[in-house]
Amino acid sequence: MRYVKADNVLPEEIIKLIQNYIDGEYLYIPRKCENQKSWGEKNGTRKALRERNNQIFMKYMNGAKALDLANEYFLSEPSIRRIISREKKFVQTK
């Protein structure tokens, strides 16, 4: 999210109206429902985590131990086991 200067995008009468409610403060205007993006969609976080989780699962399937994967990826062992479980379900539904 980036800031946009109101003077550049809003008519003067709307700016004056908003100033009656909030003068000189920051104001967040949410997206319309139809324009909302899901978590991690815009910056690629979701894709990066999906790839990381797939790597963890593949290493596990090739014999890596959950504790070793936890140390390698700086995650807890229960988190690694949860990722492996989810990936197994994902593979089974394909």
TrEMBL record:
The lineage of its organism: Bacteria, Bacillati, Bacillota, Clostridia, Eubacteriales. This is Mor transcription activator family protein. Pfam families: Mor. Residues 12-89 form the Mor transcription activator domain. InterPro entries: c-mor_Regulatory_Protein, Homeodomain-like_sf, Mor_transcription_activator, YraL-like. Transmembrane segments: none annotated. It comes from the Bacteria.
